[in-house]
Fold each of these.
Amino acid sequence: MAFVLPDLPYTRDAFGDILSAETFDYHHGKHHNAYVTKANELVAADPALQGKSLVELIRTSKGALFNQVGQIWNHSFYWLSLSPQKKQPTGTLLNLINEGFGSVDALIEKLKAEAVGHFASGWAALILNEGKLEVTSYHDADTPVAHGHTPLLILDVWEHAYYIDYRNLRPNYADRVLKEAIDWDFVAQNLDGEGVSRADQPG
């Protein structure tokens, strides 16, 4: 079974000027799709790899294959981290945010600083580490799954994620998405690790 490009959980024009339909056309339709195509080519060339899920391949591969499957997983999780309806954290998640950062606004500023300060391409992320929230980032195609981390949300800071709408202004992109377009319900669901399985695909 080949990996497939997952459908977006919303329409391409759902985010207005936060993220344009053109950005989704290129980011999802071309960049994400290219990772899927290349991963399938690499897996098809090696019978020992066939039948393994994305997460299995991420944890056991390196080099070109790791880059492709890591990017498939990261992008799939990124789409799920977004919502065209503005939401707010509640319940256990809100309590963890207040305990770890003092407020939702403080968490958002920390995530923004991580995204803006990350050198070159990669991903800013909120993870759960030993019962506490932690802000971190990953270089290039690296992913929380490779390190056994529990991902709660992930923000793409590769240039193709924002250049159509924001040109070189990564801070503006990070600010708007984090303040207006995060699916905090999805983030809360991931406290039990659900997001890993939702972004995974069987091979």
Amino acid sequence: MSKTQLAILGLGSRSTLYYLEQLNKVYNAKNGGFSTCPFFLLNTDFDTINPLLPNTSVQLDAVLQGYLDQIEALDVAELLIPNITLHETIDRLELQKNILHPLPLSVLKIKEIDAKKVVLFGSLHSMKSSYIRSYLELNSIEVLLPSSEDMVFIDEVRKHIYNTTETKEIINKYHQLIKKYSENYPVVLGCTELSILKPTDQRNIIDMAELQIAAAVKNIL
């Protein structure tokens, strides 16, 4: 039996399922037939993690380290985590596996298209905190934010998608916001829920989840 390259840490149901579906879709597009992406899935009890988010803490470190210790025992090279915010805690912990980390992947993509400025869409916490913004700015990428009113709405969209309570009107307004902000600069999606129902007809979007998935499949192949 050949070695499985990838491990996935299962988190929130909808976001994790989205990653699994997209991994299979991208892998099948490359390999054809009935091919599906090979990986190990370690599903967490997300109720032990979600109440501690979005902030880092010693308590969250301890909970996550327990799951990471199980992954360290697996014969895999890489780890994919289907939650952008959680990477701030991952950065605090020691792990031997390679992390398919959305921030360096985003920097590579932004530099590839030679963009100097981007607009960040994410959770309200992610847009207001320095974690994503400071990383991009350290790599000479200026980060712009939506208006305060729009940031609140974007966070409401995230919550609706997480709870599967979104309506056509909410998603249409969300898509219109992306269209508006992407007219001048790429919009970076730094939240998995926002990736799940992003518009498929707009090109000036940099989707962190999509970058993780593409990198995972590329490395497996």
Amino acid sequence: MALRSDWSQRSCSMARGLDILGDPWGMLVLREVFFGNGRFDAMKARLGAADSVLTRRLAALVDAGLLSRRPYDDGGRQRQEYVLTAKGEDALPVLNAVVIWAEKHLPAPSEQAHMFVVHSGCGQRTTSADSCTACGERLTADNTSWHSLTRTDHPVPLATAPAAQKSAQQNGTAA
């Protein structure tokens, strides 16, 4: 069953982008993977999502090329975890923009319910989704941390796509 209407063939770039990035569960799944939390059970626990919801969102993000599956050994049993692709990593400014907008315009239900975008290079919070407002450097997953006060007392460096996928994207080939 489709998650919603298919906007992938619309003439509007925003509509096509929202076809992939406009689903709240999908965005929350991406948040978890950027936080380095790519295993199904860990995501399920953190998100409180039903198996069917999480399974569909993960499949949609894999089909769209934002995530890929990577095998890992779970005590003698091989399982799959989800990792960012270079295409998924490129969604970072969208997620940063949502965080920054929410912090600016929406009241937090508690003092701990805050999340900040931090440029790891200079250690400063930023109010721009794509560049550091303190030093001007372009934000990437390699140099950005998120500080979620409900998770930790310090900023968490973001997960990145495996180097082979980044190299393939830069060379114009699929990984």
